[in-house]
TrEMBL record:
This is Coproporphyrinogen dehydrogenase HemZ. The lineage of its organism: Bacteria, Bacillati, Bacillota, Clostridia, Candidatus Pullichristensenella. CDD domains: Radical_SAM. The keyword GTP-binding does not apply. Residues 147-385 form the Radical SAM core domain. The gene is hemZ. Its EC number is 1.3.98.3. It is an enzyme of class 1 (oxidoreductase). GO terms for molecular function: 4 iron, 4 sulfur cluster binding; coproporphyrinogen dehydrogenase activity; metal ion binding. InterPro entries: Aldolase_TIM, Coproporphyrinogen-III_oxidase, Elp3/MiaA/NifB-like_rSAM, HemZ, rSAM, rSAM_sf. Keywords: Iron, Iron-sulfur, Metal-binding, Oxidoreductase, S-adenosyl-L-methionine.
Amino acid sequence: MADVFRLFYGDAPIAHGEFSGGPSKEILAVVHRAELRDGLWKDTFSGAGKTLSFSSAPQGRTEVEKKRLRKRQVKLGLYALLREITGMRPAWGSLTGIRPSRLLYEQMAEGKSPEEAAKALVDVFDVSPSRAALLVELETMQRGLRVLPEGTFNLYIGIPFCKTRCLYCSFSSGEIGDGHLVEPYVEALLREMDLCRAMIEEKGMRLRAGYVGGGTPTAIPRPALEKILDRAKKAFPGAVEWTVEAGRPDTIDRDMLQMLRDSGVTRISVNPQTFSDATLRRIGRAHTGEDTVRAFTLARKIGFDDINMDLIAALPGEDLPIFSQTLDRVLDLAPDSVTVHTLAVKRSSKLHEQLHLQGGGQHGLPPEGEALRMTESARSRLSQSGYFPYYLYRQKYMAGNLENVGYARQGKACLYNIGNMEETASVLALGAGAITKWLFDRELRIERAPNVKNIEAYIARVEEMARRKRKLLFSEESGEEASR
């Protein structure tokens, strides 16, 4: 239920239990009463002088499904009360999950058209018509790409090093420093690759799409990255797509790009996040907007015809005009895909730490509603320029409770991103902090095998990480082992 409260009250403290105090402007006390009577659930929610009551029939066939759908009923009731109290209507309505598209496909599985399914999300979950329409556009782009051919999997390789750590970053990556961990990390990664190659051959599976992320893979020396790519292509041949996150323009030069091209990489990401140099300094990125232009132009000259660019809406110190200027520069460059992220203030980020130390001060964050205006502007302008949404996901603590959306030109949607975000593809994940996710279709379930996040621990325990994957891939009763 805490996620529903956060839709309206952000990161305010939440407590569950008995409340004996009287009315208070500082404390919102919500009471939920429920009883099953005459075959119906009777739910009453009260708070801030308002009371709402609902009746609903129990749903679901299995016990797990019944529990899940009952929780959904209660969340919808709580959402209705909080909307009544605050007068707010979040863009995604009562939805708090990472993948809103899952509900669209759930409705379509019942025989509804995409448009009918979207209307159900508006009617049942109070999703805004704008976001429901976004899901319909996304479904159109995903047709024929969402589900992998039988016997295939996707591969993720994590390079957890960056030149500097961005203010908003919460990933399990480390600043590269003097680079003393790079060589032992690469050797451990190659060892894990060799061990997993044997498993995949034993399973008789083939790779569809590979993705090298981080961190910033291009932050490590070129020969080290070349060694990783060479081993990966030999261990897991046949992929129709290979992506490398060349995200930081200050890590890209002609030799690096030529090596990526010669290694068979088909798609790269060159990520400005913003073209405002003042913002780049503020968020801890050691490059300028012009560095991004230089890197992108060089990549085009070398022959890359599938380049993504990432932007972030609602960065500290930015407003709609600044964001629009960034969008102008991106559209001038005409990449093949554009990913528009909404700033998420993660608990493990430096930004969250600074906000906390300032006693809740906003650190120059845009005002309420600005993130929505930015993302709506991006969607409109990208659509006018021939880009369409092809994958979408949400995170906790996002500005405006919004979303991250990948837009692409026709024929340029990233296969790895679709399979990973929709969880319609098994993903073999290598490296520190990487999480393997395997689909078991007969049971309609996903099992996970996480690698430890700490780089030194990963190096020391790489054989154990491979054993976790073997247990997952070959045991009938696989279970997730704790990442510690």
